[in-house]
Structure formats: structure tokens, C-alpha cells
Amino acid sequence: MASRGGGRGCGRGQLTFNVEAVGIGKGDALPPPTLQPSPLFPPLEFRPVPLPSGEEGEYVLALKQELRGAMRQLPYFIRPAVPKRDVERYSDKYQMSGPIDNAIDWNPDWRRLPRELKIRVRKLQKERTTIILPKRPLKTTEDKEETIQKLETLEKKEEEVTSEEDEEKEEEEEKEEEEEEEYDEEEHEEETDYIMSYFDNGEDFGGDSDDNMDEAIY
Amino acid sequence: MTQAEIKLCSLLLQEHFGEIVEKIGVHLIRTGGQPLRVIAHDTGTSLDQVKKALCVLIQHNLVIHQVHKRGVVEYEAQCSRVLRMLRYPRYIYTAKTLYSDTGELIVEELLLNGKMTMSAVVKKVADRLTETMEDGKTMDYAEVSNTFVRLVDTHFVQRCPLVPATENSDTGPPPPAPTLVINEKDMYLVPKLSLIGKGKRRRSSDEDATGEPKAKRPKQTTDNKEPIPDDGIYWQANLDRFHQHFRDQAIVSAVANRMDQTSSEIVRTMLRMSEVTTPSGAPFTQPLSSNEIFRSLPVGYNISKQVLDQYLTLLADDPLEFVGKSGDSGGGMYVINLHKALGSLATATLESVVQERFGSRCARIFRLVLQKKHLEQKQVEDFAMIPAKEAKDMLYKMLSENFISLQEIPKTPDHAPSRTFYLYTVSILSAARMLLHRCYKSVANLIERRQFETKENKRLLEKSQRVEAIIASMQATGAEEAQLQEIEEMITAPERQQLETLKRNVNKLDACEIQVDETIFLLESYIESTMKRQ
């Protein structure tokens, strides 16, 4: 505090220590104060030394690039979910762009991991009703099953006895859980006198005539 | 964890595992141990995604899990392990030099998959090797197993911690997460497996359009329901051992540069003899007698015992003190001062950086201050024989970049500035830390620039890939020269030029990353060794 009052009047501002000790002699001009942050890319005074080249360097370089590419292909590389496009498209149903239910593609040893990390995959039956998987050939019999059931339930609704409805719903559920297809089909067929797949309600009558132009239409 | 390290970790995770894993990983590195729900809530990602990411991270030994009280499982990230991902190519190359292609592929598979069982590794590597062999030849599992066992014997591959065998299953519900333990003795114990088989080549006829053959093959492999004999025993690459090997290499080449080939061979022999006896953090190796060294020299070297003794004396007297004499029994007991060697290497790195950044006169001042430990301003000018103004300028430049620091020595108890000595000094530890931080920043910059360059030219890269695919398929179906020419011309000459430039730049940036990583390794080893001694 005493020195500050005494230092006034000199050419340069007084500092708290003897500047000669640090090497700034009397009367030396100090560099101008910096009023802005240093430039982002300061000019290089010395060129950098060239990189080592040679067989080893090139091999390691190639290895590095290969590794990078390989890791992108492994199942450990998790891609964010493809964002939904603006309009829902028909083909979306048939493209399975990721593992079912966000489960992982690889099989870790679950004994070593905490239990909470296991993602439960929903059971197959529910998937059948929500997502139509592209395994069409395997599913034809099951689809027939469903259409038979649907037709039946639609018909039955007209005449209904509630107990029958309940029975059918129960049977549907049972069927979904246990997948005993043949047994159920026979049971349903016993209830009605007619084989459902032969039923033709006459709506397609007019459409068939385009197939054979030879036959005359009566 | 400094900001630079976190940024580098984030870039590495994103490049190798994708954005979701990166987000979770960086969050864990920043905030420390957290349970699952907190992670999901703080990062705003769905629980399923967090679970997936954590599975990947744990598989690759980047995150560990611990059960805390009340059954909460906490996950903690290992930042330093994430930074090791930069060094993977070097590990694989080292394995190649030591154990040829088989070793290289084993280490590569282990690094890419985090941890694997021995049988899985052997099978995969045999398949990969068979692919590259000529038609009709296959790789035998036995050979791959042998190389694997050799890798384990020299500690390059080690066992992962095991799930403890639960004898009493009636102590209530199983814990939410297993606590993995590993016994020192068991770490390198190879289970007795008889892996018989040969590598399978993926034949081109199987890659036909009908998916049927491919669908059949997986079913066949699951049909053999034999239990895997080494189920539950996982192996991982032992990075510390690789680091030891790099350190030894650095010391040997330093001795070769300073003295001559023979002395470096002697040092190499000494290091080899103490590989398994010296613990990894030790400041110096176990003492070795001159007779033992003489017996263990490589077969091609016939130098007489006297010449060996002379070399050893020379090495021990060298001011760098790589080799020290610890006794006289057995013809002279010699040790290698690992800590001092690392210190010299780190110092050499610092000097080289100062020289390349500021010029050789600055380097002279730097070496002077290093040698004399503490110097005043005036003394620096005198000893370095550099005019005062320039010396001042250089000192301040180095001071501002923190290579040199100021030490105050007060003459009076009130620390009055006019009566205080200000001495310039170099603290190697803090300068090394500062340089390491800069290295992390540099690598992050290099990666970012490379990604930027690739993104800029993405369209062009995709086009060239498509053209290559077309050419390949046309060549496979036998096309004429003229047609191939036409397809190749789809890429115009300036575009080709652009692609060339891009390739050159990306290669250069990649090579820079590898080079900076070597510096990072030296500095990290030195800092670690110093911290262990304190």
C-alpha cells in the first residue's frame, strides 16, 4: 500500500516486485497488451518432422484402417434406430431392420452379467398378431386357421348365444397359447356342418367371367 | 478425467461402437458409478438401449459392475481402458512379430470381441487362416491351440475373472449381479482341452442365391449339442504385458542409439531374463550376475566373458544410468533401472518437442536448465551464451507454454518481491503431464479432422465403392475389356484426383495418430512409474 502511492509519476506502472530481477531493464519497452484470444491456427514457425515410413509403419496403418472397418460390421456396433419416415409404408411390415424387440445380436454369457441387463424377448404368439413376419410359406396353415376362425366368429355373431361366443374366445386363446392346431381345427369343424373353406358367398360371381373368354355367358 | 481425455474417449467409442454406446460410455466416464435407471434417466435414452450399450461395454472390459447395498448394481467406466483402444493395431502387430500370423489373428479376435473362450477363438482363427490358404489346405486346430498356449505361457493372454461357483443354492435368491473373482495362480492356467478339427473354408458354392444351404448350416452346428468343455472360462488380452514389451523395446533401441548393437543385445538379454521374475511396476529388475548373462546370451553372439564384462562396466558407468551395478558376487551383479530409463526417455521426448517447436537455441536453454536444475535469468544468459534479449524471449515463450516453471526463493521472511530470487527450473513430472494432455488433444483433433474429411467426400466415396462393386461383379461374370473401361470412366479424372488426395490425407492423419500414441505410451509409463514410487 505504501509503495503504490510512492510509485506514481513514473513512466511505467509500478509492479509489486523489482522487475530487474526478472530481466526487464529500465527503459525497456514492454510488449503491447493482448486484447484478444490467441489465433485458432497460429502460423507455424518450424515445419514438422516427416512421419516415419517403412514396412512396419504401413502395415500398422493398414491394420488400423482394417480394424476400423471390421468393428463397424460386428454386432457390437449398435446403430440408432432408423427414424420413422413420414408416411407408413406397406413394405415396412416386411422389412425387419433390426433384431426382434431391440434384443442384441450376439449372445453374451448371461451368468457373468447382472440380471437386470437381460432384455426379455416377447413370446412368439404375440408377435404373430402384431407383426407379420416374412416367413410366408410356414404361415399359410396358420393363416388359414385364423381366417377360418375369423369367419366363424363373424358368422356366429349374427345368431349368437353368449356361451358359444365365450367358448370360442376361450378356444382362440387356448389355441394361441398352445398352438395345437390340428385339434382345434377339428373341433371347430365339428360344430358346423359345412367345411368352412368350401363356403362361397357368391360375391365373386361376376369376376370369374374374365378368365375364359371362350365360354359364353348365360 | 480431463476434458481432453473425455473428448478422446467419446470419439473412440463413437468410431468403434456407435453413438448409443458413446453416449452411455461418456456419461459414465463423466459421472462415475451409476445404477441402470439413473443412467437411462440422465441420458434420456430408452432402457433397452442402455441395456444393450452396457452389455457391449462390459463385454469389452470397458465398464465394470458392482453390487452395492440394497441390491443396487452400479456400473463404472474405466477411462484409461477406453484410451487403450487407440493402441490396438500396435498390440496386434507385436503379436505378429512374436508369434506370426496365427498369434496375430488370436490377439485380433480377442481384442475385437473383448473376451472369448479358448475353443471359440481356436475355431474362428482356424477358419480365418484356412480362408487365406491355398485350395485344399486347411489349418489344424492343434497348431492354433499351440500358439494360444504359448501366448498364455508368456502372459500375453490371461484369464478373465470367473463367476464364483455357488455351492449352496439355498441362501435365498441369487444376487442381482455376480461378483467376479480371479485367483493369481489361475490366471494363466490353460484348461485341458482336446480340440480336434480343421478350419472350415467358406466355399463359394454355398454363397448361392438360395438361402437354403446357409439356413441349413446353422441348424447343423446347433445339432451337435455337446457341452463346450471350457464353458465359462474366458480369456482376454493382457495389455500390461504388451506395455511391458513396448517398454523393453524402447529401452533396447535407446541403448542401441546411444552405444552400439552389442550393448543393446546385452540389455535385451537382461530384460528377457527378468521378464517373468520382475513385477510390472518395479523400479528395477532383479539383480543378474554377469555369469548368468553370459550363459543366456543368444547363440549367435560369441563375445568372450571379458568383453561382456567390459560392456557391462561401460553400461553401468554411463550417465544415463540404464544399467546399475548392485554388487560384486558372481562376477558382478547388474540391474536395469527401469524407472530411471523411463525418466530418460520422457526427458528425451520433452527435449525433442522443445526443439521441434521452438528451435535449437531454445532446446539448448531447456537442456541447460534441466542439467543445472535451478538457474537465475542472468546465469541462463551466461551459460547458454545467448544474448540477453533473445534468451529472455525464449525463456518467456517456454514459460508461457509451461515447459519451464519459476521457483521463488525468498531472502526475507516477508517474501518481498524485490528481495526474492526467481529461479527457472524444469519439473519433468509436471511437464510430462502437460505434454500428455496436449497429446490427447492432438489425437482428438486428428480424429475429428479425419472424420470431417471423410464426411466431406462421402458422396464421392460411395460412388467409387459402387463402381468398384460393379466392376468386380462384371469381372466375375466375365466381361470384356471395353465394358470395364466404360465403367471405370464413370469416375472422371478430377474426381479420381480428389479421391487420391482424400486417401493420402486420411493415411497421413492415421499415421499421425499412431505416432502420437507412441508418445502417449512413453509419457504415461513414466508418470505411472513415478506415481508408484511415491
UniProtKB/TrEMBL annotation, chain A:
Basic and acidic residues bias (residue ranges): 139-160
Protein name: DNA-directed RNA polymerase III subunit
InterPro entries associated with the record: RNA_pol_III_Rpc31
Keyword Flavoprotein: no
Superkingdom: Eukaryota
PANTHER family assigned to the protein according to its UniProt record, in alphabetical order: DNA-DIRECTED RNA POLYMERASE III, DNA-DIRECTED RNA POLYMERASE III SUBUNIT RPC7-LIKE
Stated role: DNA-dependent RNA polymerase catalyzes the transcription of DNA into RNA using the four ribonucleoside triphosphates as substrates. Specific peripheric component of RNA polymerase III which synthesizes small RNAs, such as 5S rRNA and tRNAs.
Disordered: annotated segments: 135-218
First-listed, main subcellular location of the protein, grouped into a coarse class: nucleus
Quaternary context: Component of the RNA polymerase III (Pol III) complex.
Claim: Transit peptide is one of the keywords in the record: no
Keywords: Nucleus
Pfam families from the UniProt entry: RNA_pol_3_Rpc31
GO cellular component, one term: RNA polymerase III complex
Subcellular localization(s) per the UniProt record: Nucleus
Any one GO biological process: transcription by RNA polymerase III
Biased composition (Acidic residues): 161-193, 201-218
Automatic annotation (TrEMBL), chain B:
Domain (RNA polymerase III subunit RPC82-related helix-turn-helix): residue spans on this chain: 7-64
Domain (RNA polymerase III Rpc82 C -terminal) ranges: 146-344
Family to which the UniProt record says this protein belongs: Belongs to the eukaryotic RPC3/POLR3C RNA polymerase subunit family.
Source species: Odocoileus virginianus (White-tailed deer)
Compartment(s) where it occurs, according to its Swiss-Prot or TrEMBL record: Nucleus
Coiled-coil positions: none
Keyword annotations from UniProtKB, A to Z: DNA-directed RNA polymerase, Nucleus, Transcription
Subunit structure: Component of the RNA polymerase III (Pol III) complex consisting of 17 subunits.
Entry's Gene Ontology BP terms: DNA-templated transcription
Annotated ranges, domain DNA-directed RNA polymerase III subunit RPC3 winged-helix: 350-426
Gene Ontology MF: a single term: single-stranded DNA binding
Functional summary from the UniProt entry: DNA-dependent RNA polymerase catalyzes the transcription of DNA into RNA using the four ribonucleoside triphosphates as substrates. Specific core component of RNA polymerase III which synthesizes small RNAs, such as 5S rRNA and tRNAs.
Keyword Transcription: yes
GO cellular component: RNA polymerase III complex
Compositionally biased residues, Basic and acidic residues: 211-228
Pfam families xref list: HTH_9, RNA_pol_Rpc82, RPC3_helical, WHD_POLR3C
InterPro entries: POLR3C_WHD, RNA_pol_III_RPC82-rel_HTH, RNA_pol_III_Rpc82_C, RPC3, WH-like_DNA-bd_sf
Region described as Disordered: 197-230
Protein name (database record): DNA-directed RNA polymerase III subunit RPC3
